[in-house]
Amino acid sequence: xxTVTTRYGTIPVAGYVEWFEDGAVMSCAPSGExxxxxxxxxxxxxxxxxxxxxxxxxxxxxxxxxxxxxxPLERPTRIKTPAGPMEVELVTFHPDGSLCxxxxxxxxxSGYWTQEDEGGLARPLRLKTPLGVIEKRVIGVxxxxxxxxxxxxxxxxxxxxxxSPAGPLTARVGVSFGPDGSLRSxxxxxxQRVATPAGVIQAYDLDAIGICGDLNSLEFWPxxxxxxxxxxxxxVLATGPDGAxxxxxPELRESLCGDGDKEIVPMQLxxxxxxxxxxxxxxxxxxxxxxxxWSLRTQPFVAQFATAFGHMxxxx
Length: 316
Prior knowledge:
The chain has one helix at 115-119; strands at 2-6, 9-19, 25-30, 36-38, 41-43, 60-62, 68-79, 86-93, 99-103, 125-129, 132-136, 138-143, 149-154, 160-164, 167-177, 183-188, 192-196, 199-203, 218-220, 226-231, 234-239, 245-248, 251-254, 262-265, 267-271, 275-279, 287-290, 295-300. The longest helix is centred in the middle third of the chain and has 5 residues, at 115-119. It contains one helix and 28 strands.
């Protein structure tokens, strides 16, 4: 039986082992049961597989310091977190050993096991957050080394009511927070009006992908003003020095379905105390408009195209 030695003890392994240059273990696949003592209590890394959700043994990984980095678990395990107890199948750690991320489920999606199958196993969790105590299905939660909840990622289709500097908003995908607990960002679930230095914008991003709630399309500065926003439904009209005019609106692209339809590319805007930055698609450069030289106003933007609003990218 092959083994590797770590600060957590000897681990039986099978297959390829990755090493750091100094000879410390980077990652390995356990071949037998072993309990690792962590700040979350004893954890048993995954060492067996099944025919549907987990067809391979996922690797146990370490930081260069020798501290645990990611631990896929053999079985659902109840741990303590700063947000309350959670039953999890995957945990990650900061280099200092503190809890970084916790995931209630860790099935591998495939032709045999779909997102819907995995979602059917998800159960609402009762969590303490800067928004108060919530009870929602979450894909994962993220903490800083001090134990502050920095973000939570919701299951696709689930939403959360969020009191924000722009008023009550409904979030999908995720919500993130600053170290002081202030709301940092959220992903609007429907087009929602927010005030910005350019005027009122319908905040909504049709391209939002529900993988991680760390950074979302509507972001606030700590004092509560809008820092960044994406929109499919608003155009910006700008008047500059000597009467110069410019217009910015979401662009259209060929549908990824390849059926000749068009779909909207979200326009992105970012603001600080002195400037507005705008780009009409992610692969373009930002246009920078000093706010002491340009006056901005907004209008509704309605694109006439065949693809129905809200049905994008073939898989939606």
